[in-house]
Amino acid sequence: MAKKIDISYTEAMAEIESILKQLQSADCDVESLATKVKRASELIELCRKKLYKAEADVEKLFE
């Protein structure tokens, strides 16, 4: 079962940016590549869900 991620959008984005910098650096080792990509994917999905929820909440306010 996947571990639930419970962090803010801002924290998730900061972590995604950090992972991206690590992947772009020459220091990135192949062994940890899959782990970093999986974590980034989880964070991106979390951010999408938060954005969709915020959009729905704003639309409700304008109804």
Helix content: over 70%
Strand content: under 5%
Gyration radius (Cα, Å) is: 15 Å
Structural class: mainly alpha
Contiguous helical run count = 2
How does the SSE layout of this entry go?
Elements lengths: L8 H16 L5 H32 L2
Helix pairs in contact: 1-2
Structure description:
The termini are far apart. This protein has 63 residues and is mostly helical. The protein is built from two helices and no strands. It has helices spanning 9-24, 30-61. Helices cover 76% and strands 0% of the residues. The longest helix is centred in the last third of the chain and has 32 residues, at 30-61. The model has no long low-confidence stretch (mean pLDDT 88).
Output the keywords.
63 residues, 2 helices, elongated, mainly alpha
Characterize this entry briefly.
By secondary structure, the protein is mainly alpha-helical.
